[in-house]
Specification:
This protein has helices at residues 2-16, 66-130, 135-196; strands spanning 20-22, 26-30, 33-36, 41-45, 52-54, 59-63, 198-200, 205-208, 217-218, 223-229, 232-239, 251-256, 259-271, 297-304, 319-324. The chain is of the alpha+beta class.
C-alpha cells in the first residue's frame, strides 16, 4: 500500500510539479515616465483626463503660446534684417568693383598721358639744347610732365581707395552673413518653443496622475502627468534555484490576481544576468561583517502574447506565472 502511494505521489510530482517553475513574486511592469513641459507658461487647455488612453501624437495639454509667438515674430524680423544687410553689402561690393575698374581705367589713361608728357618734355629739351626750340615751350612741357605724373599718382591712390572700399563691403557682407546665421538659429529656437507649447504623447498609452489644470502656471521641466505606455510585460522574480532549466522562449501560463478568470499565455523573453540586489542602489557587501546565505531572486522578463481588452491592466498588478521548463515527452 505504501509503495503504491509512493509511486502515485511520484507520478503526480512528475506530471504536475516537475515540468514547471512558478512564483507569486511577479508583477506587471512598464517603462512609465512623467510628461513634463519644455517651456514655462499658463496652461490654456488640458484636453486629457485621468486614465485616458491616447494614440501617439495626441495632445495632453496646451500652454498659452502668445509670448513665444511674439518671440518668433521678432526672430523673423531679425532674419529679414540680416538678409537685407547682406543684399546691401552685395550692392556695395558691386559699386566698389566698378570704382576699382574705373580707377584702373583712369590709371591707364593717366599712364598714357604721362608717357606722352615725358616724350614731349624730352623732345623740347633736345630742341632747346640744339637751339631750335624756345625755352618757354620747354618749360611748358616740363610743367605738363609734372601734372601728368601727379595725375598718374592720384589714379593709383584712387585704385587703392576703391579696393579698400571693396574689402570693407566684403567684410560687411561676412558680418551680415554671420548675423543671418545667428538670427536663423534664434528663429529655430523660437519655432521650437512655439511647438513646445503643445504637449503631446510620444507613443500610445494611458495618462495617469494628471496634475495639470487649465489656468495653472507651470515651470519648464515641471511634470503635468504620468504616462504608461501600451508596451507592458511581466517581471517575475524567481529564486536562483529555479533557474537551472529556464531559458528564453519557454512557454508561460499567467494568472492576474485581479482577474483570475483571464488565463494568459506568453513566453520567457530574457533572464537578468544577476540578482535583483546586485543592481540596487545599495548592493549588499558580503565581504564585510557576518555572512548569512540567503537564496537570491533573479528578475525574469515575460512577454504576454495578448493582453485582455475588457479589463484595466497596468504596472504593479500582481501576477502568478508558471513556466514550463521541462516539457513532458
Amino acid at each position: 500500500m505504501l509503495i503504491a502511494l509512493g509511486v502515485a505521489a511520484y507520478f503526480i510530482w512528475l506530471i504536475f510539479f516537475h515540468p514547471y517553475e512558478t512564483t507569486d513574486d511577479a508583477f506587471i511592469d512598464a517603462r512609465s515616465f512623467s510628461v513634463a513641459a519644455k517651456v514655462s507658461g499658463y496652461l490654456a487647455d488640458v484636453p486629457a483626463t485621468d486614465n485616458q488612453h491616447f494614440d501617439a501624437g495626441a495632445v495632453i495639454a496646451r500652454i498659452e503660446p502668445r509670448d513665444y509667438q511674439i518671440a518668433l515674430d521678432q526672430a523673423d524680423a531679425q532674419v529679414d534684417s540680416a538678409r537685407a544687410a547682406i543684399t546691401n553689402a552685395e550692392a556695395q561690393i558691386e559699386v566698389a568693383k566698378a570704382s576699382v575698374e574705373e580707377a584702373q581705367a583712369q590709371q591707364l589713361s593717366a599712364g598714357a598721358a604721362l608717357q606722352f608728357a615725358k616724350d614731349e618734355a624730352t623732345r623740347q629739351r633736345e630742341l632747346v639744347q640744339g637751339g631750335a626750340g624756345s625755352l618757354q615751350t620747354s618749360q611748358q612741357a616740363e610743367s605738363n610732365l609734372r601734372q601728368a605724373q601727379a595725375s598718374y599718382s592720384q589714379s593709383g591712390t584712387s585704385i587703392t581707395s576703391a579696393m579698400k572700399n571693396q574689402s570693407a563691403a566684403e567684410a560687411q557682407k561676412t558680418s551680415a552673413e554671420a548675423s543671418l546665421k545667428q538670427a536663423e538659429a534664434q528663429r529655430e529656437t523660437a519655432v521650437q518653443n512655439v511647438g513646445y507649447t503643445t504637449i503631446t504623447t510620444a507613443q500610445p498609452g494611458r495618462v495617469v496622475r494628471l496634475s495639470g489644470a487649465k489656468g495653472q502656471f507651470i515651470q519648464e521641466g515641471q511634470a503635468v502627468a504620468m504616462f504608461v505606455p501600451d508596451d507592458i510585460w511581466v517581471t517575475a522574480n524567481f529564486k536562483e534555484t529555479q533557474l537551472a532549466d529556464m531559458r528564453p522562449g519557454q512557454p508561460v501560463d499567467l494568472v492576474i490576481d485581479a482577474y483570475p478568470d483571464h488565463e494568459l499565455h506568453g513566453k520567457v523573453a530574457s533572464v537578468q544576468p544577476g540578482s535583483g540586489t546586485a543592481f540596487s542602489l545599495l548592493p549588499a557587501q558580503n565581504a564585510t561583517g557576518n555572512y548569512v546565505k540567503v537564496t537570491q531572486r533573479v528578475p525574469v522578463k515575460i512577454e504576454v502574447d495578448q493582453w485582455p481588452k475588457d479589463v484595466s491592466i497596468g504596472p504593479g498588478m500582481s501576477v502568478v506565472p508558471t513556466v514550463t521548463v521541462r516539457p513532458r515527452n
